[in-house]
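Troubleshooting: if your tokenizer reports a length mismatch, compare your output against this known-good record of 128 residues.
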Amino acid sequence: MLSSVAPVPVIATADLSRARAFYEEVLGFTPSDHEMPGGVTYRSGGGEFSIYVSEFAGTNKATAMSFRLSRADFDSTTAALRAAGVAFDTFDAPGVTWQDGVAHMGDYRAVWFRDPDGNVLGVTQPPE
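Known-good structure output:
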């Protein structure tokens, strides 16, 4: 029923201005032309995601949204995130080794970081 429709991640924020500054100035997203009361929608690749004001902002402790990149794009994107001052999270997990904030799981690599509300975002590079 829904398998042919692109999902739209929806991420809560307590402060829309602060969230917009992060998603637009740090991560480089441009608002789409879709109006959203109390929030903003961004295009990303072939899809989109929305940020909206909620009293429950930052309560999700799991990854809210992830971006899957090629090996070359993973390296350049993680370098750009570091240059923009984004700090990567690390944690204990079976089978994961860490090198300079990057998780290595065989040929799979990933980084996780948080937006200003504490929502966890990920950048992954699956085996090619």
